[in-house]
Every structure is written in C-alpha cells, then in structure tokens.
C-alpha cells in the first residue's frame, strides 16, 4: 500500500464528485491508530466499516490492518447502490496481502444481525444514518468480542443518541469515551 496517500486523494475527489460525506483526516488517523494497535494484539481480526460510502474510511482501516499484517477480514458495508459501486472501484485500486476485503451492498444493521455469531467481531466503525446508531449498538454489542472496539463517527452531531449509547454502555460496564477529533468519535471497548 505504498500508494496509500495517492489513492486517498483520488477517493477524496470521488467523495466530492458524488456528494458523499467523508471522515476528516484526523478521524482517519484516530481510526488507523486504534485498529493498528488492536490488530497487533490479535492473531485474526474481523473488522466492519458500516456505512463505507465510496471507501474513504475503508482505506484507513485497511491501511492499519495491512501495516500490522493482521490476518483477518474487513467488511465494507454500504446500503446505497451507487455508492456501493464506487466502493467496489475503490477497493479494486488496492492490493491487500494480509487481509481479505469484502464489499457488501446491504443494510449494515441487518448484515451484522444475520452474519455474525456471539463475540466474533473485533472492531466496528459506524458511520450510518445517525438516527440508527443506537440500533446498531444493540445489534452489535453481543457480537463484539471481549476487548473489541466500537467507534461511532460524528459524536458531536447527535449528542442525545450518544448519551443514550453511553448510558447503556455504562450499564454493561464497558469503557467509553469521545475522541476529540473535529467531529468526535464515540469509542466503546467491551470488557
């Protein structure tokens, strides 16, 4: 992935051309750092990018996994068909050698509910419709492995939903914080 920044710039332009919102670079660096550390501690990781858009956040996650040379799987899930087709083109630009990458055209919540068993996920980045954040938390909390991370983008935009998730996370004794990027990332870690 020597050409990571060149591909990142191409996908930034693609986001602008298609009017697809994307994470900021500080969010990307935060996600990269979190996943890199997690991936170096695990033999095999299962990672989800829920609401992948055209693949900007997916690139950051894939870079972390490849740099850690983590074996495992990355699922990039996008519900919108037009964005999904562009996501597939983005993933076609990359050569992953350590991780298998799958693009999924589906509703992220439904896919998580259907596809994964108890405590099989290691990292989930969530950037779906904000009003569905709590539903995703409920759908994924038992699918997340102990020590796994769940990260919600745009935490500052939806304070009432973030508060609801935080209350539930504290009830089940999870670690929780908001990473102070420009847009905020709600980070949860399962004990």
CATH class: Alpha Beta
CATH homology superfamily: Vaccinia Virus protein VP39
Helical residue percent?
40-55%
Largest sheet: 7 strands, mixed
Backbone CA Rg = 15 Å
Instruction: Kindly give the count of domains.
Output: 1
Global structural class: alpha/beta
The global form is: globular
Commentary on this structure:
By secondary structure, the chain is of the alpha/beta class. The protein has a single domain, classed as Vaccinia Virus protein VP39 (Rossmann fold). The protein contains seven helices and seven strands; from the N terminus they run H-H-E-H-E-H-E-H-E-H-E-H-E-E. It has a seven-stranded mixed sheet with strand order 3-2-1-4-5-7-6, with helices on both faces. It is globular, with a radius of gyration of 15 Å. The termini are far apart. The model has no long low-confidence stretch (mean pLDDT 96).
In short:
The protein has helices spanning 4-18, 25-41, 56-67, 81-92, 108-115, 133-140, 159-171; strands spanning 44-50, 71-77, 99-104, 121-126, 144-153, 175-179, 185-189.
């Amino acid at each position: 992935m020597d050409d990571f920044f060149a591909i990142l710039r191409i996908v930034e332009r693609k986001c602008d051309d298609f009017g697809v919102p994307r994470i900021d670079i500080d969010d990307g660096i935060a996600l990269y750092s979190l996943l890199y550390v997690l991936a170096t501690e695990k033999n095999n990781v299962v990672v989800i990018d829920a609401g992948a858009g055209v693949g900007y956040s997916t690139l950051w996650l894939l870079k972390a996994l490849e740099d850690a040379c983590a074996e495992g799987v990355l699922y990039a899930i996008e519900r919108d068909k037009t964005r999904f087709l562009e996501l597939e083109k983005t993933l076609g630009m990359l050569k992953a050698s350590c991780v298998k990458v799958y693009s999924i055209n589906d509703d992220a919540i439904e896919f998580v509910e259907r596809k994964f068993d108890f405590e099989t996920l290691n990292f989930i980045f969530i950037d779906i419709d904000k009003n569905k954040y709590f539903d995703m938390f409920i759908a994924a909390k038992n699918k997340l492995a102990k020590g796994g991370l769940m990260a919600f983008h745009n935490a500052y935009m939806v304070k009432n939903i973030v508060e609801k998730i935080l209350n539930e996370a504290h009830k089940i004794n999870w670690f929780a914080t908001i990473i102070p990027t420009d847009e905020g990332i709600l980070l949860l870690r399962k004990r």
